[in-house]
Amino acid sequence: MRGLSAKSVRVPVSFAGHAMVAIPGRVGCLRLRLSGRASLFVLSVLLAVNVAALPAAQPAQPHRASEKEKVQIVAADGVPYDNESSAEVMQMKALSGNLVANGSFETGRYWPYGWQPTDGLTTFWESGGTDGARCLRIYTDVLDSQWKAREDQVRAAFQQALGKAPDPQSLPQNPIPPAPARTPTSPPYYDTVAGLHGVHYRSDYIRCAPGAIYRFSVDARTEARGTPKVFIKGSCDQTVSTRDGYETIRRDAYQAPIFLDPCDGQWRRYARTFHPSESKATLGGKPLKPEWLQVQIYAYWERGNYDFDNVRLDIVGAEPPEPSAPETPKAEETRKPAATEPPPALKEDEFPVFKR
Predict the structure, then answer these.
(1) Are residues 38 and 187 in the same domain?
(2) Do both 90 and 223 map to the same domain?
(3) Which of 286, 231, 236, 226 is nearest to 261 (CA)?
(4) What's the distance, Cα to Cα, between the start and end of the chain in Å?
(5) Contact 86/72 with Cβ under 8 angstroms?
(6) What is the 3-state secondary structure (H, E, C) of 101-147?
(7) Residue 294 belongs to a domain
(8) How far, rounded to the nearest angstrom, does the alpha carbon of residue 3 sit from its chain's CA centroid?
(9) CA–CA separation, 276 vs 233, rounded Å?
């Protein structure tokens, strides 16, 4: 019986109380004419052998959707979200308008109003985007040394323009000199701005409302294979003594990053909430409460183009005010004299902002 399979069984044909059973072999087929109980016995043996020869049923494997099969959650304007969490955050009711001036990069003369000047080497004011006709582009395949020199040049030109007009874009000519030709880069590209500093692009400062809960969102895409970020930084004013007298500087007091991942050639929307009032920063043992917020768009490795648009910052809630503890008067003899030395200063941000 070896070699039988479900396909090799010949269905017997009964006639005149007898049955013809065909058993295939290597050379031919053995035909038997059986009658009555004998035919039933042979048939039962053949069926048992063939059932045993059938392959065992395999358990069903769960289907795992590929990236193309995953259903995207798309906003009302047609831009897909990066994940379900961003979609949920965007359903929260805004209690304010967009606090980022010119978040869609639509208005400006030489560069977008409400943002730092574009340098023409790593930052560009481009056509396209998801909200209006303009967007921001950051290009990171530039030698870090050339980027640094250009940053110093742009910063100096901007400061000089501020001395001529409160709004440098009101000047008859662009106060930022043209960018130099880009120096070619070569593998492994670790000496590029992508491999070292990365490129920050900053908004104007925004007054931070005490106890407010904020929602930040941005649309982005990239031709590179990197993961850009956006930092919402909180700062507070501090008066310090310098050689030229007293000066007010802004100290870092809070940071809320958002990682734009995944990010590819398709525009996507990313969103998160944050609570500046939860800042744990201290200076000289005293808490630092953010007074200002600033959006800092950041792109680095891998080298290439990164596009951004539709930058929004909305208030979506408020923290309950913290109860203030009553002050306990101290005994005269327990009072300590005021400190004669100033508290230690925090380190400055590696990437100082343009003063206004």
Answers:
(1) no
(2) yes
(3) 226
(4) 95
(5) no
(6) CCCCCCCECCCECCECCCCCCCEEEEECCCCCCEEEEEECCCEHHHH
(7) yes
(8) 61
(9) 9
Total domains in the fold of the chain: 2
Q: Which of 146, 148, 138 is nearest to 118 (CA)?
A: 138
Mark whether 43 and 90 lie in a shared domain. Answer: no
Rounded to two decimals, the pTM is 0.72
Print pLDDT tens along the chain (356 aa).
444 444 444 444 444 444 454 555 444 444 545 455 555 555 555 545 554 555 554 554 544 434 444 468 999 999 999 999 999 999 999 999 999 999 999 999 999 999 999 999 999 999 999 999 999 999 999 999 999 999 999 999 999 999 999 999 999 999 999 999 999 999 999 999 999 999 999 999 999 999 999 999 999 999 999 999 999 999 999 998 888 889 999 999 999 999 999 999 999 999 999 999 999 999 889 999 999 999 999 999 999 999 999 999 999 999 886 666 555 555 544 444 444 444 444 344 444 343 33
DSSP conformation class of 4: -
Structural domain that includes position 44? 13-53
